[in-house]
C-alpha cells in the first residue's frame, strides 16, 4: 500500500503532474497524525474539535512526500527563506465572507485604519530590520481611494526604492489595478479561496462570485504583477474534489506565489460552529504544490503557526519558502482578527523578526535579506 503512494510521489516529482485519480489518491492517503483530514464536511461540522498534540507522527508515505518537496525546494531555492513584512492597514471590509472575522456584519469588532504616515513609519522600521519587501493587506475598505493607495505606494517607493511592494486589498476594477501598478506596486495577493462554484457559495454571500475573483487574478497577471493566489484548507464543505479543482485552477493561472493555510474558526462569524481545518492536510498540500510548482513562493502562514506551535516550521520542512512576520503597530494587531487565537499579536516588530529568524534556522533554513522575487518560469 505504502509503495503505491511512494510511486505516486516519485512520479509527481519527476513529471510535475499526475492524473486526477492519482492526485486524489495522494490527497486522501491515510495519515499517521490521527487528525481528521476533512473535518468540515457538512455532516461532520458539529463534531467536537480536538486539540493537536505537540508531536505528530506521520506515515512513511507522508514523510516521503514532505522529503520530496523539501528536495525540490532546496534544488530551486537552496535553504533561503524569504521574509515579507506584513502591514495590516485596515480592518474595515465591505464584504461579508462567512468565515472571516473582519467581515462587514461583525459588529463586535473594534475597527481601525492606518494613515499614510503610520504605514510609512512601519515600512521605515521594517527596512531597518532588513525587510526588502512589504505586503500591504486590508479588508476591502472604500475609504482608501485609488489615489490614496497610489500615494502610499509611491511614497514607500520613494523612501525605499530597493523594496518590492505587494498589495492585498481584494477585488478591484482592472483600471485600479493598473493605477497601483503604475505607481510602483509589483505584486498582488488574492487567494481564489476555492475553485469550486458550489463550495464558493457555502463560504460567500451571493453578491460575491468566483467568476469575478478569477477575472481579477487574470487581469492582475496581464497587467504584469507577480500574482499570488491560494485557498484555505478545511473550510466548510471542502472535499478532495474541491482541492483537486484548486490545483487544476492554479495550473491554468500559474501564479508566482501560492498561499494556503488551514481554515480557522472565528467566534463572531456564521461558521463559528465549524472545526478548524487540518494541519496534516495543509502540510500535504504544501508539498504537492511544491512538486507541481517547483518555482513558486509558498509561505508558511500565520494560520499554520496558529493551529500548531510548530506549524510554520513543519510548513517549511514540507516545502514552504516564505514567512510573513507582522509589521503592523502592536496597538492595532488584535483588531485584525481574521480567526480566533491569532498568534503574533502582542510582540514588537523587532521581536517578530528575531522569533522568525530562530524558527527558520532551527528548521535548517536561512532567513535572507532580499526582495525575494520569483524564479523565471
Ligand atoms: N481583503 C483581501 C482579500 O479579500 O484578499 C485581503 C484580506 S483577507 C482577510 C486575507 C485572507 O485571509 C483571505 O484570502 C482568507 O483566505 C484568509 N482568511 C480569512 N478568514 C480566515 C479564517 N477564518 N481562517 C483562515 N484564513 C482566513
What is the terminal-to-terminal distance?
A: 35 Å
**How helix-rich are the residues, as a percent range?**
40-55%
Biggest sheet architecture:
6 strands, parallel
Radius of gyration: 19 Å
Bin the strand percentage.
Answer: 5-15%
Oligomer: single chain
Question: Short summary of the structure?
Answer:
The protein has 14 helices and nine strands. The chain has helices at 2-15, 20-27, 60-77, 116-128, 146-159, 174-183, 197-203, 210-223, 240-253, 279-292, 302-307, 311-317, 330-333, 349-362, and strands spanning 80-83, 85-90, 133-138, 164-168, 187-189, 226-233, 257-262, 322-323, 366-368.
Can you walk through the features of this model?
There is one protein chain. This protein is an alpha/beta fold. The chain has 14 helices and nine strands. The strands form two sheets. Strands 2-3-4-5-6-7 form a six-stranded parallel β-sheet. The protein has a three-stranded parallel β-sheet with strand order 8-1-9. It is globular, with a radius of gyration of 19 Å. The relative contact order is 0.17. The model has no long low-confidence stretch (mean pLDDT 95). The structure holds S-adenosylmethionine.
Amino acid at each position: 500500500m505504502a509503495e503505491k503512494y511512494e510511486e505516486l510521489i516519485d512520479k509527481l516529482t519527476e513529471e510535475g503532474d499526475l492524473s486526477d485519480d492519482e492526485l486524489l489518491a495522494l490527497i486522501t492517503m491515510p495519515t499517521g497524525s490521527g487528525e481528521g483530514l476533512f473535518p468540515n464536511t457538512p455532516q461532520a461540522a458539529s463534531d467536537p474539535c480536538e486539540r493537536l498534540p505537540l508531536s505528530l507522527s506521520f506515515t512513511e508515505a507522508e514523510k516521503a512526500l514532505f522529503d520530496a518537496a523539501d528536495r525540490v525546494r532546496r534544488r530551486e531555492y537552496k535553504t533561503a527563506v524569504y521574509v515579507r513584512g506584513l502591514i495590516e492597514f485596515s480592518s474595515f471590509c465591505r464584504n461579508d465572507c462567512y468565515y472571516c472575522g473582519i467581515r462587514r456584519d461583525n459588529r463586535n469588532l473594534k475597527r481601525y485604519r492606518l494613515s499614510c504616515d503610520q504605514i510609512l513609519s512601519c515600512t521605515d522600521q521594517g527596512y531597518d530590520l532588513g525587510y526588502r519587501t512589504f505586503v500591504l493587506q486590508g479588508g476591502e475598505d472604500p475609504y482608501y481611494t485609488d489615489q490614496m493607495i497610489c500615494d502610499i505606494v509611491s511614497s514607500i517607493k520613494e523612501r525605499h526604492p530597493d523594496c518590492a511592494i505587494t498589495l492585498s486589498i481584494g477585488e478591484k476594477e482592472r483600471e485600479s489595478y493598473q493605477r497601483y501598478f503604475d505607481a510602483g506596486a509589483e505584486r498582488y495577493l488574492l487567494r481564489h479561496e476555492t475553485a469550486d462554484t458550489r463550495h464558493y457559495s457555502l463560504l460567500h454571500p451571493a453578491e460575491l462570485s468566483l467568476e469575478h475573483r478569477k477575472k481579477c487574478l487574470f487581469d492582475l497577471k496581464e497587467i504584469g504583477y507577480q500574482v499570488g493566489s491560494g485557498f484555505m484548507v478545511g473550510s466548510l464543505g471542502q472535499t478532495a474534489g474541491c482541492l483537486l479543482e484548486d490545483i487544476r485552477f492554479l495550473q491554468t493561472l500559474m501564479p508566482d506565489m501560492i498561499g494556503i493555510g488551514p481554515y480557522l474558526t472565528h467566534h463572531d462569524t456564521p461558521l463559528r460552529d465549524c472545526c478548524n481545518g487540518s494541519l496534516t492536510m495543509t502540510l500535504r498540500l504544501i508539498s504537492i504544490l511544491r512538486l507541481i510548482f517547483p518555482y513558486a513562493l509558498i509561505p508558511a502562514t500565520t494560520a499554520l503557526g496558529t493551529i500548531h506551535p510548530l506549524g510554520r516550521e513543519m510548513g517549511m520542512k514540507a516545502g514552504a519558502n516564505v514567512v510573513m512576520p507582522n509589521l503592523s503597530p502592536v496597538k492595532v494587531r488584535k483588531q485584525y482578527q481574521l480567526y480566533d487565537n491569532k498568534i503574533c499579536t502582542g510582540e514588537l516588530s523587532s521581536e517578530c523578526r528575531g522569533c522568525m529568524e530562530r524558527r527558520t534556522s532551527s528548521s535548517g533554513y536561512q532567513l535572507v535579506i532580499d526582495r525575494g522575487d520569483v524564479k523565471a518560469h
